[in-house]
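COURSE: Structural Biology Practicum
ASSIGNMENT: Worksheet 4, Part C
STUDENT ID: 0417
INSTRUCTIONS: Below are two proteins. For each, the amino acid sequence is given first, followed by its structure token string. Answer the questions at the end about the second protein only.

PROTEIN I
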Amino acid sequence: MRLISAVCLMLAAAPAFAAESADLSTENGRYAMTPAPEGFLRLDTRTGAVSLCTVSGAAASCRAAAEERKALEEELDRLTQENARLKQQASGQPPSKYGLPKDEDIDRAMGFAERFMKRMMKILREDQPADKG
């Protein structure tokens, strides 16, 4: 009974709090609260996240719903693995599926370009007329 009255008190105070903080935040109306046997459910109307909130003394604490917590943990694991994979790719050679050349290919191409330039410079020097002096 005490829990229900605490939830009702919080819900009754919410509009007054929202009016006071209207110019401090753009989050007004983001959450929808629904009473539950253990406390109340908080629905984030932007993301769809559901949390179970309990009131203990003067403080309320909210935890993500069990099935949502599992989904969040799975997404966190997936993102952690993807991050590790991307870091490994960034530190090593670029994958060939992007069509970028490997370091050895670039070195080889630069060697050809260097030899070509040296030969061209030699030809240009040989074709210049001798100084008349």
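PROTEIN II
(use this one for the questions)
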Amino acid sequence: MPLSDTTLYYFYNYLDVKQDITDFLFVDIKNNKITTSAVRRILINLKRKLGYTTLFPHYLRHTFATYFILYGGDPLSLKIILGHTTLYMTEIYVHIAKQIALARNVKYTPLSNIPFFQKKRR
């Protein structure tokens, strides 16, 4: 899986701090491996602190995939990263990213910047 320089920096720092106390990569404060239920609890606490109504691991995966495409990642690489067997699932993220890009850039279209065509605010 490709990792950015920033991600690698923090990952290697984490490994330095962790110092092979345990065989598990991700551990809690007592050096026990982090389980799926622990991740669920972390997200529930985070959701509560941030005031979100929903926050699930799959949302994080979905957000990553959407922004990967939005910021120039290619669908084939995303397919590999996510472990999909076909490009069909990554096409969904391409569509969503296109919609986000269009919505973000509508204010830069030529007609939007000509006073005659601008909508009157009421």
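ANSWER KEY EXCERPT:
Q1: The longest helix spans residues 88-105.
Q2: Helices lie at 5-18, 36-50, 57-70, 75-82, 88-105.
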